[in-house]
What we know:
By secondary structure, the protein is α/β, with parallel strands linked by helices. It is 38% helix and 14% strand.
Amino acid sequence: MSALPFSIAGTRAKLGVLTAIVDALLALFFPPECPLCGRELGRDPGPRLCRACARRLERAERGCPRCGVPGPAAPCRRCALHPPPFRIARAVLVYRDGNEVAHAVQRWKYHRDEVMGRALTALFRDALASVAPGTWDWVVPVPSDPVRLRRRGFSPALALARALPGRLGSVAPGLLERRAGASQVGLGQKEREANTGAFAVAPGARIAGSRVLLVDDVFTTGATVVGCAAALRAARAAFVDVWTLAHTAPPGAARREALAEHAPTATSVRAPDRSGGSRDG
Ligand SMILES: [Zn+2]
Ligand SMILES: [Zn+2]
């Protein structure tokens, strides 16, 4: 082969050094601030929140072992009734209306706060740091809704997928597609079955037997990740795991948890209401 790849690598290395110098100079004159509270972060200009804000973000520490819905560490009613097409779904944070996580995610997604985006994608990367290398073949971001993509100008799911180290799997943004009333004409029975739903595996993509990590920003009703995982499984992916930055708490969960804490004898706690939220699903 020619020496071209080496010269590209050399140029990239030089650009990398330049970027680092510019970043260091910027940090000297404009010390990095926590994107949530505005407090100065000190000398290390890593993409992050201050310690106090990072602590205030509600972590997804327990929930359904299958879908990860925040709550008791037991299979949720919905997974028991309708086992999802993914193996497991996990999230880093809990998204509740009005909590710091909701505030941070909204700042990133709807106000295009890039500093916040870098802090959140870094949190996501750190949360997956202990996953064994080679767990997945493909890291697939949930494809953006074209209208939202135009409005936002970026895909949060793709940003999260790209933040992950390559050893976890190759990022494959084009592997899944959103379908806009795709035609069933000319498809056989099997293909027709695989062709239902809002998502489809890109024509020609060979994922039979491969292990897929599906990435999205917020797991709300689960309809989106279920649709994506079903399409991947229909194309014979070996399994699909899901990681999202945040998982919404079921409506009323905070109230129920507070009640349970104060009245441990109460047993008539109703199953979470899973009516759809207004977020992306
Ligand atoms: Zn802060
Ligand atoms: Zn569940």
